[in-house]
TrEMBL record, chain A:
<dbReference type="InterPro" id="IPR017896">
    <property type="entry name" value="4Fe4S_Fe-S-bd"/>
</dbReference>
<keyword id="KW-0479">Metal-binding</keyword>
<dbReference type="Pfam" id="PF12838">
    <property type="entry name" value="Fer4_7"/>
</dbReference>
<keyword id="KW-0408">Iron</keyword>
<keyword id="KW-0249">Electron transport</keyword>
<feature type="domain" description="4Fe-4S ferredoxin-type">
    <location>
        <begin position="10"/>
        <end position="40"/>
    </location>
</feature>
<dbReference type="GO" id="GO:0046872">
    <property type="term" value="F:metal ion binding"/>
</dbReference>
<dbReference type="InterPro" id="IPR050572">
    <property type="entry name" value="Fe-S_Ferredoxin"/>
</dbReference>
<dbReference type="GO" id="GO:0051539">
    <property type="term" value="F:4 iron, 4 sulfur cluster binding"/>
</dbReference>
<dbReference type="InterPro" id="IPR017900">
    <property type="entry name" value="4Fe4S_Fe_S_CS"/>
</dbReference>
<keyword id="KW-0411">Iron-sulfur</keyword>
<keyword id="KW-0004">4Fe-4S</keyword>
<protein>
    <submittedName>
        <fullName>4Fe-4S ferredoxin</fullName>
    </submittedName>
</protein>
<feature type="domain" description="4Fe-4S ferredoxin-type">
    <location>
        <begin position="42"/>
        <end position="71"/>
    </location>
</feature>
<keyword id="KW-0677">Repeat</keyword>
<keyword id="KW-0813">Transport</keyword>
Amino acid sequence: MALTNQRVDVPVIVDESKCLEKCHACIEVCPLDVLVKNPETGKAYMKYDECWFCLPCEKECPTNAITVQIPFLLR
Amino acid sequence: MTNTQHLKTDVLVVGGGTAGTMAAIKAKQANPEAEVLILEKANIRRSGAIAMGMDGVNTAVIPGNSTPEQYVREITIANDGILNQQAVYQTGKLGYEVIQELDSWGVKFQKDTYGNYDLKQVHRVGKYVLPMPEGKDLKKILARQVKKHKAKVTNRVMATRVIVKDGRAIGAVGFDVRNGDFVVIQAKAVVLCTGACGRLGLPESGYLYGTYENPTNAGDGYSMAYHAGAELTNIECFQINPLIKDYNGPACAYVASPFGAYTANAEGHRFVNCDYWSGQMMLEVWKELNSGKGPIQLKMTHLDEDTIAEIETILWSNERPSRERFHQSRGENYRTHGVEMHISEIGLCSGHSASGVWVNEKAETTIPGLYAAGDMASVPHNYMIGAFVFGRLAGTNAMEYVEGIEHLEPDTDWLAAEKERIYKPMQNPDGVPHTQVEYKLRRIVNDYLQPPKNTHKMDIALNKFINYHDTLDLMGARDPHELMRCMEVHFIRDCAEMAARASLYRKESRWGLYHYRIDYPEKNNEEWFCHVNLKKENDNMTLFKRPVEPYIVDVNLAEEYDVKVTAN
Ligand SMILES: Cc1cc2nc3c(=O)[nH]c(=O)nc-3n(C[C@H](O)[C@H](O)[C@H](O)COP(=O)(O)OP(=O)(O)OC[C@H]3O[C@@H](n4cnc5c(N)ncnc54)[C@H](O)[C@@H]3O)c2cc1C
Ligand code: SF4
Ligand code: SF4
């Protein structure tokens, strides 16, 4: 089957300058398991656009690196 | 090659949310020597409906404010008489102890200046709502207690099936949603606590995860109990909620109405006199919207500044704290704008309505060794305290049951077949993405099952859901995370078929909008004062009537749950 990669606006933004390489706090608490580390940079990012805008990731980030926006379709 | 992990425990709890964490704690309290394992798809620290806590307890029966008998009477009328009163009575009787225990663990409930629980009236009769303005860390506190009680936890493993042998539950299988391992757990008893089916209908926004329920709860437990051979009940009594339009979360009238807020039509007039969520309330909302008097709103603009500020503090720090940024991004404010409300898509959830796995007052399902608690277990209007109470009952009773019981070896052919079923999408990484397969399925749910229900439409739906097995076979997954979503779509399909069949079977209308049938618009107690149960028999979904259990509290059933405002 033919697949295409579509561009989407993802709700979770990580400020890479604030993200700590050794930390996994947001990744561990996300109930939907949509955040991962970029293996090249060691920074967290939203890999899957499946977000409940529930905020544990943002609340548990030790450096306030995360901003959760309301997903575009609902905003 | 897929790696296989074998685990063994005495009591297995599937789903470490509200009910599941309590089940594990109570099982350990009943026998600290025995092994208890929680299997959790996410991480118990922040999973499920209460990931960010709760605004309040919706069903607190506190001495001096109400009695278990009054509570049973209220729920009996709200649920149109169809319930096992003995089960509902448990929530009324044990809820107070649960609240006291949570309090002793550091969960904060609102108290008055004398130190008494500060209850509010939201129901038609009686005070049952106990605010929790500082409830946001509820889940962290529960996770700490799980650890303290030495219950084991395996996070990020999704269960897919209960293992049944010789007619009893002997474990579960699933897979690690990060490394893809196949996981087989042998247990002497299994407690299912996987929450609601929150991804049944499609939200109007079109965003698959923009649901009222935590979208990890995709009806997993409904489907697993069904395939284990357990009975499910009241599935046609859908969950439909009045929610913030687009945001699709609670507004939340239970918090705001004790402060003087109310649900109003576009002209600002009240049309319901009680904000407690019921099918009858939802029918009034539906009528109002269809009479051209909408949009409807939760109105707070008439309240003073201090009151609004207090409401904001509660709503913006607990439960669904992103409400704040939702309103702000639209330039809206409780002082100047009503909160526009809409009717949600359908779901299955006994926490709010009644659909679930049939359980008795001991949280036992119809399969020996299989227990269920929380939103997926049918104890009508059970909400958070009911989830704790039934978690407690399930944990305690499961531990009692395992005494003297031996582990049984799962059947190897069955395990091999289940493994093949799970990993099929991984064989086909370029198959149709789960997002598209799920979108179409849930769009069909909206088109044909959203009340008012109509026989012709539901016949079409049923046919489409049966044929959807072929569509599921087209799905492809590129990693274990996508595989998790694929398996969830399987659960959603099962729930959709149950919802269509149960709705077709009950040929009357009941529970307001939840089961409003255009072709059978009246309630018919003569033929339908009964549960509609279903189960898997010889690979077929069989439906049948189950008599309502004898009442233990007298209720005048002629009394309607009428919330309509007549003069406006
Ligand atoms: C937005 C919202 C607001 C609410 N407000 C209130 C309120 O103010 N007051 C009140 O009393 N009640 C309220 N409720 C209801 C109450 O929160 C629920 O009834 C209760 O928390 C349900 O508990 P549960 O254990 O059944 O589900 P949950 O707490 O959701 O737990 C289910 C758990 O199962 C896990 N899981 C799911 N599938 C699998 C699987 N296949 N394998 C392994 N694990 C799995 C999930 O990750 C989750 O941890 C609200 C609910 C919501 C969604
Ligand atoms: S808001 Fe919730 S679902 Fe979204 S990334 Fe953060 S923790 Fe995950
Ligand atoms: S919690 Fe914050 S610092 Fe830690 S990984 Fe996530 S974004 Fe980076």
